[in-house]
């Protein structure tokens, strides 16, 4: 947990927010400063409150960088801009413009095009059936045979998430297994951090909390081993919420030797100095 403070600080700075803006009505600014300098680990509820102030969400499927959807550089830049500003309504409208669609030429571009449409459906109206349709169209364009590209893995894991939201447990397990197949042979890409988070989120939605925790811990170790903090704040936020459920609702979780998770469960409540 030594990196928690760094991750919170980085997330706050990326949003150009001050410590006082984040800590207001949650904790003192000095407490937040001590957390950010790794002098204290916040209890789960305090961490949840800080993450919510930072607009961290469970279902935030955030790509690092972007994928090209067509041959026109300007159109690719527009699509990336809409996506990274979370303007999914405009992104969806942009993707449906005939002038954009007619410049989508090869299989890779078509795969990315349908993947972005799937994300728009998920973010705008929780359109799981429509998202599933787009994801299957995207995956059908994969041309690498047994070797999965990062985009193909993301398509598979996002489809697992859709299945989980629909309560289709067998399909969820199968899709997660497919997304991770031979991952150790892949060249590292920061977007691969998403695999662990979305898999854990999928397990969470079908109440497989043991598997969710196990996957979160693997994902955090995977990211840190590659000197990345991408999706770390989301992973810690999800883990803190599971910890709160275990402590308060007695969900029947069999706690194993999860080093990070147990630090949440067994830590003393941090008492802020007046």
UniProtKB/TrEMBL annotation:
InterPro entries: Cro/C1-type_HTH, HTH-type_regulator_Rgg, Lambda_DNA-bd_dom_sf, TPR-like_helical_dom_sf. PROSITE patterns: HTH_CROC1. One of its GO terms (molecular function) is DNA binding. Residues 8-61 form the HTH cro/C1-type domain. This is HTH cro/C1-type domain-containing protein.
């Amino acid at each position: 947990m030594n990196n928690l403070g760094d991750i919170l600080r980085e997330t706050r700075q990326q949003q150009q927010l001050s410590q006082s803006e984040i800590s207001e009505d949650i904790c003192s600014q000095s407490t937040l400063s001590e957390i950010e300098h790794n002098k204290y680990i916040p209890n789960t509820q305090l961490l949840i409150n800080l993450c919510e102030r930072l607009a961290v969400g469970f279902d935030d499927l955030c790509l690092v960088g972007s994928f090209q959807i067509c041959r026109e550089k300007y159109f690719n830049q527009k699509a990336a801009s809409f996506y990274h500003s979370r303007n999914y309504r405009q992104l969806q409208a942009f993707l449906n413009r005939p002038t954009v669609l007619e410049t989508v030429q090869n299989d890779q571009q078509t795969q990315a095009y349908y993947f972005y449409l799937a994300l728009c459906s998920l973010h705008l109206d929780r359109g799981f059936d429509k998202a599933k349709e787009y994801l299957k169209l995207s995956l059908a364009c994969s041309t690498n045979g047994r070797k999965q590209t990062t985009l193909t893995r993301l398509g598979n894991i996002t489809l697992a998430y859709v299945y989980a939201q629909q309560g289709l447990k067998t399909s969820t397990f199968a899709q997660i297994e497919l997304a991770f197949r031979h991952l150790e042979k892949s060249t590292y890409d920061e977007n691969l951090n998403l695999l662990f988070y979305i898999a854990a989120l999928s397990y969470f939605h079908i109440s497989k909390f043991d598997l969710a925790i196990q996957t979160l811990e693997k994902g955090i170790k995977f990211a840190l081993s590659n000197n990345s903090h991408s999706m770390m704040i989301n992973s810690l936020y999800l883990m803190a919420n599971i910890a709160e459920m275990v402590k308060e609702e007695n969900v029947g979780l069999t706690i194993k030797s999860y080093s990070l998770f147990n630090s949440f469960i067994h830590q003393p409540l941090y008492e802020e100095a007046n």
